[in-house]
Predict the 3D structure of the following.
Amino acid sequence: MPKTVLITDDTAFMRMTLKNVIQKNGYVVVGEAADGEEAVAQYLELRPDLVTMDITMPKMDGITAIKEIMKHDPNARIIVCSAMGQKPMVIEALNAGAKDFLVKPFDADRVIEALRKAAP
Amino acid sequence: MISRKVDFLRELGTIGMGHATTALSEMLQGKLLRLEVPDVRILYFEELAEYVGGLDQVVAGVFIQISGDVSGHMAFILPVESAAVLIRLLVGDGQEHGVFDELGRSAIAELGNIMVTSYLNALAALTNLVMKPSIPGLAVDMAGAVWESILAGAQVDDEVTLIRTEFFAEGVAIHGNIIFLPGEDEFRKIADVLGLGAV
């Protein structure tokens, strides 16, 4: 069965770009969240195999959303996709439970490689 | 302004913009982008809009507030015509999108966000100081009005020190600039960390 993915990003353009890349590679995008709150709610409802998570977002940022999701499901597989690639932020995200950290702009191969590694 | 300070600020602009345009180039499948030497100025608040392309020119501006070890403001500003070309190259779904439709606006906001954040990432790596970007704001309007949006709520003194770096693309009509507006104390903080003492 193809793996399911929840995409989280506050810009419609980035959600569309990620969705195109992910779907072309055999995954099914089951949800799209525009902030951390939506990501947590959709995660609990849809239980996707994988989540992509932006960091800087309105309402709830990505780090808080990762912590919330991990509280409910310590086995959640979350990959950060953010422009904010500064070391302390990367460490914070990985400590919160993220499996990988991709700095935007990313190329399609790198996204798929991260998804495959997180959920073989 | 003391020439040493100008040199230092120019260098920050070059490093930051080097990374920002590398990010843009990657988003445009490796298109070559050329940088101008950064321009460092102290301007009165009222002179800002005129300096960045004239009050009446219609521009798209993405603005981001910086917090963390260094605070300040950054803006990515480009003529509306350049924004339209970029939207066509970035979205590429065969449909026409402009700076006034949702997907077009979203593409420019994300592009500005990635460029400004790459600029900050480079300075952060250089200094070991954390510079956190806010959620980007986007305004498409006459330059004067866009500046008002950028500086709304900001504690800006009468005089503003800014670093502006302009870029041009080869073969397509794209140009724009990134403006970094840190407070006076913030310049000092960066200079101290880099061991430059009083600049």
